[in-house]
Each structure stands twice: as structure tokens, then as C-alpha cells.
Design goal:
The protein is an alpha/beta fold. It is built from twelve helices and 17 strands. Strands 10-9-8-11-12-15-13-14 form an eight-stranded parallel β-sheet. Strands 3-4-5-6-7-2-16 form a seven-stranded mixed β-sheet. Strands 1-17 form a two-stranded antiparallel sheet.
Length: 336
């Protein structure tokens, strides 16, 4: 019987802490794992739409997947209140169905989102050193600039966020880590002006767009990751209108459940013929369309196959390095 089932009746999964996840994960391996996942062309049945439960000021989100060709299936679950929240990934062995691992997923969302964006950028951006404009200075923005540096050389970057201290710290960190020029600037337009790649990784506090279509120029690649719910906004309808190719991690979910695309549809922007799945991009099924695109955008809402790919990598490496802990109680195994 597969690993994770002790005596065939009871078993104890392994726990991986957030610190262990941080220690074992490396960007090239995460990007490679996601490339494998999207090259396997996962279907809706492998990674159905997320479920969001709400009650007044609290909400709980669950994303489940059975990735084809992978050892583990599972789900990421996280709950939020006004005070904050906690993320967890639960892994089950696909052969036995046994609960194999529980991971503190505090870092996994940022890692998988950054790695997914880097994967998409690898197919959308020219193979040359790139200038990058970053909107946001939090964990997602940091993950994105770090990840992008593993698929293209970054020539220079600019960053804007409302906090002078945060954007200055961001610029200082990545000037050191990337050894390239980098500036913290005083407004969003200045950050993206002249950029080869725009990373939008922060929503406004009032859920108003922070990136506008009339700021864009041909030859730019836009990455937008901050609008994942109907009420959330990051880019305006003009961005959707200006972009001639829109690559989505899950086309239906991005179009129907993200505030930016809902607003663009309501504004009368026609975009259905611009859409492409990330899987099709990776498999190069529409290579001519990609080559012809003058202003592509990668628009993601997050998907369970991304979480599971990164979580499986973290779990496997943590096991090999002795960085897991045994769960303190038994789970009863139910044979088929």
C-alpha cells in the first residue's frame, strides 16, 4: 500500500511548517513543476472552481485538485476574519487515498502565483533583458519580481506603492539581490512608464483600478494578479480593451468571477476573441497568435493545480531533508 498508510488501518500524516516550506522551495524548481502541470493540460474536472463561503465579515475559500500525473491530490483551504487568517494545504496520496501531509501554506500562495506568472512571461516576453514596473510592494509583488528574474534577466525596475517606507525597502532589497538599478517612485504611472513588463500586484484600498489602459504602449507585457473576487479591482476596463491577448490560468473563472473582467464586460469591452488558457500557451497550441500579440496580458485568479504543484514539491523535499513532523494522532483508513 502507498506511503502514508501505516498498518492499513490507521496512519499519521506528516506536517510541514511555514519555515520548512520557505527553506526548501526554490524558484527554478517551482516554475518547472508548474510547467509540467500546465503541459499536462488539466481539465475542469481535475481542478474545479474554488468555493467561497461567506458570513458577514468572515469568509472561507477552498481550492481542490486531482492533478494528472502527480503523486498527490488535495486542497488548499484558508479562512479570513477582520483580524486575519490562516492557510493550509492538505495532501492525499492519489494511489491509496490516504492523508499524507498537512502544510502551513502561508508562503505557498505567493510562491505559486509568482511562479505561475514567471511561467506565463517566459512564453509572452521577448528573450532580452527587461525593464520591469511593479505596482505593489507586499509579499506578492516581492515574489513576482524574484520569480521573473529566473526566466529573464532584469535590466532595471521601478516600484510604486502608497507607503514610502515599504516601496523604499522593496527597491533597496531588490537592488541588492538582483544587482540592477531600481527606483522607488511616487506614483503608479511613473512606475510603469516605459516598462517592458508591468506587474500589477496590489489593489487599491477602495477597490479602484490602479493601472489604466491609456498608460500602456505596444511591446509591453502586463501581469495582473490582484483581482480574484467580483468586488476586487486592479486594472481598468481600458487595460482589457487595449490588450490584444489575454492569457488566463482558468478562462471561465477569470472572466466570470474577477472584478476587472466583470467591469470590462459591463463597460461594453469585447474580449472573448482575445482569451487563451495558460495550458494552451505552454503547449504552444496558438503560437502564431502569441507571436502576433503586441500587448499581451496574463490575468490570473489562482488555481488549485498551482497550489498542489508547489505543495507537492515542498512536501517531497521536506520529507527528504527530515524537515517534517509526525501528526500527533492517528487517522482511520477506510478501505474501498
Amino acid at each position: 500500500m502507498s506511503a502514508g498508510v501505516g498498518n492499513g488501518m490507521n496512519h499519521r500524516p506528516r506536517f510541514v511548517s511555514a519555515d520548512a516550506v520557505l527553506e526548501v522551495l526554490k524558484w527554478p524548481e517551482m516554475i518547472a513543476a508548474l510547467r509540467e502541470v500546465y503541459a499536462s493540460a488539466p481539465q475542469a474536472r481535475h481542478s474545479p472552481r474554488r468555493v467561497v463561503a461567506r458570513n458577514d465579515s468572515v469568509w472561507l475559500r477552498a481550492l481542490a485538485a486531482t492533478p494528472p500525473g502527480r503523486r498527490y491530490m488535495g486542497a488548499k483551504v484558508f479562512g479570513f476574519s477582520k483580524s486575519g487568517g490562516t492557510y493550509a494545504v492538505i495532501l492525499f496520496d492519489q494511489e491509496s487515498g490516504a492523508l499524507a501531509g498537512i502544510l502551513d501554506a502561508n508562503h505557498i500562495t505567493g510562491f505559486r502565483t509568482g511562479a505561475t506568472s514567471a511561467l506565463g512571461l517566459d512564453y509572452l516576453a521577448p528573450r532580452k533583458p527587461l525593464t520591469v514596473g511593479v505596482l505593489g510592494s507586499g509579499a506578492e509583488a516581492q515574489a513576482h519580481l524574484a520569480a521573473v528574474g529566473h526566466v529573464r534577466r532584469i535590466a532595471a525596475f521601478k516600484v510604486f506603492s502608497p507607503s514610502v517606507a515599504n516601496r523604499s525597502a522593496f527597491a533597496g532589497r531588490f537592488r541588492r539581490e538582483l544587482d540592477v538599478p531600481g527606483d522607488a517612485v511616487g506614483d503608479a504611472r511613473a512606475a510603469v512608464d516605459g516598462a517592458d513588463v508591468i506587474i500589477a500586484a496590489a489593489r487599491s484600498r477602495g477597490e479602484q483600478p490602479i493601472l489604466f489602459g491609456d498608460w500602456l504602449r505596444p511591446g509591453t507585457v502586463v501581469i495582473s494578479i490582484g483581482s480574484t473576487l467580483p468586488e476586487q479591482r486592479e486594472v481598468d476596463a481600458g487595460v482589457v480593451g487595449a490588450c490584444d491577448l489575454i492569457v488566463c490560468d482558468n478562462v471561465d473563472e477569470v472572466v466570470e468571477e474577477t472584478g476587472d473582467m466583470i467591469a470590462a464586460r459591463a463597460a461594453g469591452i469585447a474580449f472573448d476573441d482575445k482569451l487563451m488558457s495558460l495550458s494552451d500557451l505552454v503547449l504552444e497550441r496558438h503560437a502564431a497568435r502569441v507571436r502576433a500579440a503586441r500587448l499581451p496580458m496574463l490575468k490570473t485568479a489562482g488555481a488549485a493545480v498551482q497550489d498542489l504543484a508547489v505543495a507537492e514539491l515542498a512536501f517531497t523535499k521536506a520529507l527528504a531533508q527530515g524537515l517534517t513532523q509526525e501528526f500527533p494522532g492517528d487517522f482511520r483508513y477506510k478501505p474501498a
